[in-house]
Structures are given as structure tokens and as C-alpha cells.
Design brief:
By secondary structure, the protein is of the alpha+beta class. The chain contains seven helices and 22 strands. The strands form six sheets. Strands 1, 2, 3, 4, 5 and 6 form a six-stranded antiparallel beta sheet that branches. Helix 5 runs antiparallel to helix 6. The longest helix is centred in the middle third of the chain and has 18 residues. The radius of gyration is 20 Å and the shape is globular. The relative contact order is 0.09.
């Protein structure tokens, strides 16, 4: 049994009972007093404070994502370089009981958050040290021959006049490094005064009108990508199939993908049309069972992949019994 978003959220409510080594951590909450969760293409994560330091605690969204992240972590650990925030796998960290009362565990990922988020300090930074830090980050990535593949402001921290990337979920050795170059060049446009290009910058490609900030893997012939405009999908020939208009998007399975808009979360088909409208607080697509779980005003319901509702909205305990 693999943990769901609800499993992770409930564990963060009671870390002393659900986390093996981080039981005394403090979980950051949202305005509603609930764990502040963030979803990426591969993880569900929350910010915690433990031992006087801030961390991201992340749950891979699937067993396949977990295996990919284990390989990434092993690669980055071998590099031992200050360009990366400390990152490690916590085996069997998450502990809960299945619907039959059997104990179950899952591994989590812990990443230290160094310094301050770039998004919170960028307006106070002078252009020169910021661009010097961008140059240094580009040089570090080239030296290490590692591509982060998702460099953007929310994935960078400012620490001792350096930029430290976090969430290296898509990092690959000697990967598509031109994506990092485009992303770094886009970050330079946030400064008021751009310095003369350094030798490191001279290798960068010309800026695209709407450069990619991240590109995922192919699923069912479609590849999720993001630009400054949002998340969308392209085919294997890099032709845009669904314009980048979402705040966030998952990969396609069974011709369906979960997306997030300013109104809420929904489910789309391969044409970008909504199967479930984007007015839910949270959606979990359990594609192994062709089930969609939707949360609205604290109640959960299930749908099939056609968008037909197959259970009423229920409190989580009754909903879990219905699923079992």
C-alpha cells in the first residue's frame, strides 16, 4: 500500500506518532491551521523545523517517482559539493496503518533549506552580487556536469552570497544543461542592471521569447513543461499541445492529468478540456485503480475517469471505508 496525500497530511498533524525520527519537528501551517503542502511533479512536500533548522520533507507521489529520486539522491551525495543543499533519504520514516489496521511504512526525503528564499530577498539584493551568484551557480553546474532542470526563483535560496538550488528532483548527470542555461538567463532579466556577460555566460543560447523553466519526462506521448506563463504539455516533437496556462500539472495517465488553477484543482483530458472542473481544494488521481479522489470543504468524494461521481462527499473516515 502506497501513502496518499491524505496519509501524509494526517502524519504531519501528529508527527510524534507518524514520523520515525522527526517526531519532534514543528510543521509549518497555512492560514487555516493545516499543514502547508506543496505539490511538484514528483513529490508532495511540507516545510518543517527540526533541531533549529528549516527543511523540506517530501513524499514521492508514486513508487516509480521514489525509485527515480533515490537514484538522484545517490548521485548528488557522491558529488559532495556546496552547490547543493544537504539532501538525504529517510527509509521507513512515514508510519501509518492501512484500512485493515496493519502497520505500513514509506520512505521520505529530507532537504535542508539554507539561508533565505530568493523570492523573499531578491528585491533587496543589488544586481551585481546577484548576477555574480548566477555566474557561480552556472559554473558549478558545468563543473559538476549536472543539470538541475527546474531552476526558477522558488527553487533557489540565498546563502552567504551564493545561490543554492533546492528540489533537485529532476537533476541528471550531464543532462540537458541548455535548460539550466535558459533558466539562468531568464533569472538575469529580474535585475534592473545586467552586467557584461562573463566567459561562463558566453556559452549560453540566445534567449527564447518564452523560455522553458522546466521539462518533465514523456508519459503517453505528452511531456509536461513550464514557462513563466505556467504549466502545459508538448508532444515528443516539442510541439505545444496544451498551452502553459496552469499553476501546476501532473503527468498524463489513462489520458487524464491533474492540474491546478487559481480557482482550484481539476482533471483534464489530452485536449486540455476539463473532465472535472477546477473548483476542488485537492485532487488525488489513483491511476492504478482508475479512481479520482476530490476534496471540497473538508469532505472527500470519488469519481471515475469519465468524471462521473461514484460516491457522495463524506468525512475522511467514512470516505476511506468506502474506498476499502
Amino acid at each position: 500500500m502506497y501513502p496518499t496525500l491524505h496519509t501524509f497530511s494526517e502524519a504531519l498533524h501528529m508527527p510524534e506518532l507518524s514520523l520515525r525520527t522527526l517526531g519532534e519537528c514543528e510543521v509549518m501551517l497555512n492560514l487555516q491551521g493545516l499543514p502547508a503542502l506543496h505539490r511538484t511533479g514528483m513529490t508532495i512536500e511540507a516545510e518543517i523545523r527540526f533541531g533549529g533548522r528549516n527543511y523540506l520533507l517530501a513524499l514521492p507521489l508514486s513508487p516509480e517517482a521514489g525509485k527515480d529520486l533515490e537514484r538522484t539522491i545517490a548521485t548528488l551525495e557522491r558529488l559532495h559539493h556546496r552547490a547543493w543543499a544537504p539532501l538525504r533519504l529517510l527509509p521507513d520514516e512515514l508510519q501509518w496503518q492501512d484500512t485493515f489496521g496493519h502497520p505500513v511504512t514509506a520512505s521520505l526525503i529530507l532537504e535542508e533549506l539554507p539561508g533565505e528564499p530568493l523570492s523573499s530577498v531578491i528585491e533587496q539584493l543589488d544586481p551585481q552580487p546577484l548576477n555574480q551568484a548566477l555566474d557561480q551557480l552556472a559554473e558549478d553546474l558545468q563543473t559538476l556536469q549536472v543539470a538541475h532542470n527546474n531552476l526558477k526563483i522558488e527553487n533557489l535560496y540565498w546563502h552567504e552570497n551564493r545561490l543554492i538550488p533546492i528540489r533537485p528532483w529532476y537533476a541528471v548527470p550531464a543532462g540537458e544543461m541548455h535548460r539550466d542555461r535558459k533558466a539562468l538567463e531568464a533569472l538575469r532579466q529580474t535585475t534592473d542592471e545586467l552586467p557584461i556577460l562573463s566567459d561562463c555566460e558566453a556559452e549560453y543560447e540566445a534567449e527564447d521569447p518564452n523560455p522553458l523553466t522546466w521539462l518533465g519526462h514523456e508519459f503517453e506521448g505528452l511531456i509536461c513543461f513550464s514557462t513563466e506563463e505556467g504549466y502545459g504539455f508538448m508532444d515528443r516533437d516539442e510541439q505545444v499541445v496544451i498551452e502553459p496556462r496552469f499553476l501546476w500539472a501532473e503527468d498524463f495517465h489513462e489520458g487524464r492529468a491533474v492540474v491546478e488553477t487559481e480557482e482550484g484543482m481539476g482533471l483534464i483530458d489530452r485536449s486540455g478540456q476539463f473532465i472535472l472542473p477546477p473548483d476542488y481544494d485537492m485532487i488525488e488521481y489513483l491511476y492504478e485503480r482508475s479512481i479520482v479522489r476530490a476534496l471540497r470543504e473538508g469532505l472527500w468524494a470519488t469519481f471515475d475517469i469519465t468524471g462521473a461521481q461514484t460516491s457522495p462527499f463524506l468525512p475522511i473516515e467514512e470516505h476511506e471505508q468506502h474506498l476499502a
